[in-house]
Amino acid sequence: AKAEGKGRFRFYSSDMTQRQERRLELEAGLRTAIADRVFQVYYQPKQSLKHGSVAGFEALVRWPHPELGLISPADFVPLAEELGLITQIDMLVLEQACAMGKACLEAGHRVTMAVNLSSLDLKSLELVESIRSVIDASGFPAEMIILEITESFAMELGSGGIEALERLAALGVSLAIDDFGTGYSSLSYLKQLPVGSVKIDRSFVRDIGTDSRDTMLVQTIVGLAHSLDLSVVAEGVEMTSQRSILRDQECDEAQGYLISRPMPAGDVLAFLQAEEMA
Ligand code: C2E
Ligand code: CA
Ligand code: CA
Ligand code: CA
């Protein structure tokens, strides 16, 4: 048994070294990827439940890695946050999303572009200036840009963060509370922030129609949000049954695999064209 213990210890220790090596490799790769601007942006549509049309897209970052393939944000955004690199990535994504939005406008499609901002981002007012200059340079109207911040981050905002949000709102962009329902905040607290919409987290949408408590919870969120003049987006809509309940509940928009998986930039215009014909 002792020998086994020893072997196991050695296994764990080399496993840890391997993980440390992998982390260092990822960190170096991340820095190079930022410098070389290799990140790709995928776009996932949001559908208006009232009209059936595409209301806008959410920009979702991907990292094409020479050896590991297309890395999903779940595997590098947390590390980028820890290393203080996420803001640079978010600015690259914003720049691409604005260019995509402008291309859509020029092709005759008025769609909003939503971009995620990570927790560490809003701590500095400098960020507001970077966002302003990216938007100005793009020629895409600020009014058609949505910045998503998570509910848990919104709850941790100090006065500096709130001021940054207010300055962002003054640029004309809208703010959305992401992953709503996971952070135990109150809508009345959120209403003190310059927020235009909430995105109901996928975990609540999943069991809509099968779990009566989740169905009621979503109905309650929609009602409360509307009474505060907030619009509501449901995330992770995968089934037509979920969509029709959300429509009955007067949820404003649906996002999820049912409508489309996130798509590369090259597919966006064709997608919009096809939706218009349908
Ligand atoms: P999120 O902001 O909540 O984005 C939604 C995630 O749910 C996306 O994962 C999307 O592909 C996935 N999703 C959409 N519809 C469905 C569905 O019907 N079913 C299921 N099972 N999943 C669905 P993705 O692209 O892997 O992004 C994961 C998270 O990484 C995002 O969660 C966001 O928090 C973060 N992220 C992505 N792009 C960026 C970025 O540019 N900047 C920052 N700071 N964070 C980002
Ligand atoms: Ca989001
Ligand atoms: Ca979300
Ligand atoms: Ca989420």
From TrEMBL:
Keywords of the record: Membrane, Transmembrane, Transmembrane helix
Any one GO MF annotation of this record: catalytic activity
Record-annotated EAL domain positions: 23-276
Keyword Transit peptide: no
Protein name: Signal transduction protein
Organism: Magnetospirillum moscoviense
Parent sequence residues shown: 536 to 813 of 815
